């Protein structure tokens, strides 16, 4: 009996029961039995991450296999129809009146969908960011930068946290990919800072590593919320506001509206996480160690110079994405190949980076689930249900309710951009019908598109990279995410509302 209680499968039973229960509920109007199975499995995945004693990738692999075998995806037929996979090989009446068969393979087509996330650009961007981090660490460049950073602002752990926040804020207006910014540039420096503080980066859970990781991840999200150019999904919010509400919400309006709540949140994150995690660093000994390590590093090496040149070119290409027309993922992929060709990285370095491969697998799997939630109408059903449920509410109540539901709906997604694409239109449309103040709803959705990423360790590539380092156990990341989100929501619904009232936005 004791062995049974301690088995991994028993720890997964709550997730299995939840998934099975939801999957077998009657489908409400707007959903199908296939949609319910997908929703059930997704809910089971979230529960499994909280309770099951299995690796995240194992949970996701099991979910994808279950959905494949139950044909719970949307397949594409040979003539371009998009249908539920369980309808493959069934017949339908065409426009000409003739009966035809849906030409697709229910199981094979489902599997094609299950593995489609491995060609997603976000997954590849995260994957390459890990290897850029390896190069920064291997050459000693990250250690050099981190030692200087700690030397300047390292009078306290909170001071180091602020240094990371400042780095994110400085880069956010110019790099429109939060993953490229956080994963490709800031993350390697953060990891080197953690190592400089005497943390064994392979040991797993650690309060100092956890503090700097979650501060960096949150700073990445908050800096993304501050600028319309801060992340890829932000321009979609601005465009939808223009098309649905008829208002212009460009760079200046965005910064003006987001400035007070976003900057105040950034200012409070390091002390909040310091109180929660209590990281202990001996700063007297640290100054001695910093000087010793700087002496060991010696002068700048040729490899560091080659790395700096490569990263500088990649930074120019990332900043100039709108002008050069080169996708940020392609830039990152090019950087990895160049680093191998100039012998900064070896192919063994790529193969042995198990964190990169593991994160690539589970993030790609989450992306598939998020895309299928939209394809099978789950996200649209949520939006329609909202507008109906708030029909008798006042415009202000409707605005705040829509914003809160939008914030917590991030639990359904593994990509901030996917969240924006799926929900911004339906939520703005519902707000328009309900008479919500346009600028107020727009700034709330604009802020929450990025801020809501704190809720899970899989919300976006940059967060996934930090969470994958295991300084904070994944179940605890959810708890800390709720604590941070509570602080953000309090700021937004107090100081933020006061600020927007002064601006005359409602």
Q: Any overview of this molecule?
A:
The protein has 506 residues and is mainly α. Among the domains are: 2-70, no CATH class; 77-107, no CATH class. 71% of the residues lie in helices and 2% in strands. The strands form 2 sheets. A two-stranded antiparallel sheet has the order 1-2. A two-stranded antiparallel sheet has the order 3-4. A hairpin with a 5-residue loop joins strand 1 and strand 2 (82-84).
Question: What is the strand content?
Answer: under 5%
Helical residues, percent: over 70%
SSE run: HHHHEEEEHHHHHHHHHHHHHHHHHHHH
Low-confidence stretches at least 5 residues in length (pLDDT < 50)?
Answer: none
| Main beta sheet | 2 strands, antiparallel
* Number of distinct beta strands: 4
Number of helices: 24
Strand order of the largest sheet: 1-2
Mass-distribution shape: globular
Rg over C-alpha atoms, rounded to the nearest angstrom: 24 Å
Family: Belongs to the SLC13A/DASS transporter (TC 2.A.47) family. DIT1 subfamily.
Transmembrane segments: 9-27, 39-67, 211-234, 254-277, 330-347, 403-428, 440-465, 477-500
InterPro entries: CitT-rel, SLC13A/DASS
GO molecular function, one term: transmembrane transporter activity
């Amino acid at each position: 009996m004791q062995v049974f209680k301690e088995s991994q499968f028993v720890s997964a039973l709550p997730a299995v029961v939840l998934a099975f229960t939801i999957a077998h509920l009657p489908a409400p109007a707007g959903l199908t039995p296939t949609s319910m199975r997908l929703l059930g499995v997704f809910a089971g995945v979230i529960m499994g991450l909280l309770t099951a004693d299995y690796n995240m990738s194992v949970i996701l692999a099991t979910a994808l296999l279950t959905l494949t075998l139950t044909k719970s995806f949307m397949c594409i037929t040979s003539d371009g129809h998009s249908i539920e996979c369980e309808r493959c090989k069934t017949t339908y009446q065409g426009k000409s009146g003739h009966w035809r068969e849906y030409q697709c393979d229910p199981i094979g087509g489902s599997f094609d969908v299950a593995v489609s996330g491995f060609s997603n650009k976000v997954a590849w961007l995260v994957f390459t960011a890990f290897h850029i981090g390896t190069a920064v660490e291997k050459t000693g460049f990250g250690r050099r930068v981190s030692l200087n950073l700690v030397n300047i602002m390292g009078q306290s752990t909170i001071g180091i946290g602020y240094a990371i926040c400042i780095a994110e804020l400085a880069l956010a207006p110019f790099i429109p990919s939060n993953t490229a910014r956080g994963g490709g540039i800031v993350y390697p420096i953060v990891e080197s800072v953690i190592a400089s503080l005497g943390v064994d980066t392979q040991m797993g859970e650690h309060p100092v590593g956890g503090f700097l990781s979650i501060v960096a991840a949150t700073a990445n999200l908050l800096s993304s919320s501050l600028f319309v150019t801060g992340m890829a999904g932000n321009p979609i919010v601005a465009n939808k506001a223009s098309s649905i509400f008829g208002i212009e919400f460009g760079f200046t309006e965005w910064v003006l509206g987001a400035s007070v709540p976003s900057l105040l949140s950034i200012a409070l994150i390091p002390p909040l996480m310091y109180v929660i995690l209590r990281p202990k660093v001996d700063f007297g000994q640290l100054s001695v160690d910093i000087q010793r390590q700087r002496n060991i590093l010696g002068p700048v090496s040729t490899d560091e110079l080659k790395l700096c040149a490569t990263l500088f070119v990649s930074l120019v290409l990332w900043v100039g994405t709108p002008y050069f027309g080169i996708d940020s993922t392609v830039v990152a992929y090019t950087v990895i190949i160049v680093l191998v060709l100039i012998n900064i990285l070896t192919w063994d370095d790529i193969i042995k980076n198990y964190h990169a491969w593991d994160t690539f697998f589970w993030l790609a799997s989450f992306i598939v689930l998020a895309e299928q939630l939209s394809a099978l109408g789950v996200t649209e059903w949520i939006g329609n249900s909202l507008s109906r449920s708030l029909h008798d509410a006042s415009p202000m109540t409707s605005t705040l309710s829509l914003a809160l539901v939008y914030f917590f709906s991030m639990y359904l997604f593994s990509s901030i951009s996917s969240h924006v694409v799926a929900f911004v239109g339906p939520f703005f449309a519902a707000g328009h019908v309900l008479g919500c103040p346009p600028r107020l709803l727009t700034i709330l959705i604009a802020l929450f598109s990025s801020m809501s990423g704190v809720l899970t360790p899989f919300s976006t590539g940059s967060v996934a990279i930090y969470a994958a380092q295991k300084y904070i156990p994944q179940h605890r990341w959810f708890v800390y995410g709720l604590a941070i989100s509570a602080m953000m929501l309090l700021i937004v619904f107090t100081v933020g509302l006061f600020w927007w009232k002064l601006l005359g936005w409602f």
